[in-house]
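Example record used in the benchmark description.
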Amino acid sequence: MKQILTILPLICLMLCASGQQYSFTFKLEGRTDSVMYIGRYYRDAVTPVDTARLKDGAYVFKGKRKWARGMYSLVGQDGKKAVSDFCVDGSLKFSISGDAKLTPSTVKVKGCQVNTQMFEYLATENAAKKEMDSLRELRKKDKAAAEAGENALAERMEAYEAKAMHPKNANIFFELQNLCAPPDVPDSVNDKNTWYRIHYWDKLFSGNWTGLRDALMQSPQLFSKMNYFFYGILYYADCDTIKADIDRLAAKIGDDTELLRYVFDHIEPKYFRSTKNVGWDAVWCYMASEYYLKGRCPWATEGTLHNMRYNYNRIRQSLIGAHGQELWMADTNQSNDPNDWISSHRFPTKYVILWFWDPDCHHCQEQSAALKVLYDSLMTAPNKRFEVYAVGFESDVAKWKKYVREHHFNWVNVGGTNVNIDYQEAYNVHGAPTMIILNEKRDIIMNKVLPAKSLMQFLDNYEKRGK
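Model output (structure tokens):
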């Protein structure tokens, strides 16, 4: 459960005047950090809550304060990496010793049954992973023997998990593990992937999650579960699926705005800033309109909502399915007469590719060259499927015109300041390269950069979906 940390301002000296005496001793063989911290998780960050200096080969955290049940992290002096996680649940006087990294198989615990069980569990899991790695290597030589070993290991670990997670062993570590465990897919289910996604949160919200809400939000288990769901299971999902799953999770969370904020503050910026994932801008617009701008996120400040409203009104114009706004721009002749400008929509081709590029951008140069090869190969085709309307994203008009001339771009080249509307706002173009594909109705069907080698396949698939 080690992960990269972000240390917030040190608050370890702000100890509660009330509380119980505690003493947590950590002995790490070979560890020479002059100081170590105990931190509390919140998503992928850790806030220090206590500090201890190395003395006589040990780090002793002691004093008087109230410790909430839950998972904590022992953090090295660089403040960047967790050495190990441990639990506070019941006992406030214990010692943990082991190697410099507190590798579970080396750990010995005194005075705390919870941590004893946790490290034993982690050591068993690690040993099983090593055994599975060995069986994968064996599979290259003896497939039958490897499969028999894998099946035996799976049965053994299933029995071990059932015993370890039994209610009689209830402690904060196993309670969090149980709540954040993946769903058990019934054998009778045909579409197991869909069932798994829809029921992903069942164990958490069917258990005693309200009583453990704070411990959950301050645990690595919940963050890992959330992160895997949105950026593992849903990474390649279409926007409608992602929106439905956000609604499903929000409904389960209900009126618990702190937990909703825990989730939304993590996923909203990622959907907003994504430049590669198709449809994620639509997901962000949905979150903005249906949650933030409808007052369902009370933690959002007026400034946040103002910026969100502005971005929502800007981005929604360029979503897939929206009608593309018609551009009229001057070509390389740079005429000041609007009658000489060229429309982005009035071509006989079925599709128009709006290609926003910058001659100083290396990636633009590579993609433009590849697009030129494809475009030139189709020049003599009886029914050319698309036209390229290439907008020079460059304030230096002379430089842009020179690059177009030297590289023999035979498509429609427009640029400069002679334009009917602000195309950056109209198509959410705030970087190059950007590709927008318009269909025969000049509706947007793609708003991310596609490699030239994938362009024809994309158009083929789009037409198949429409039949």
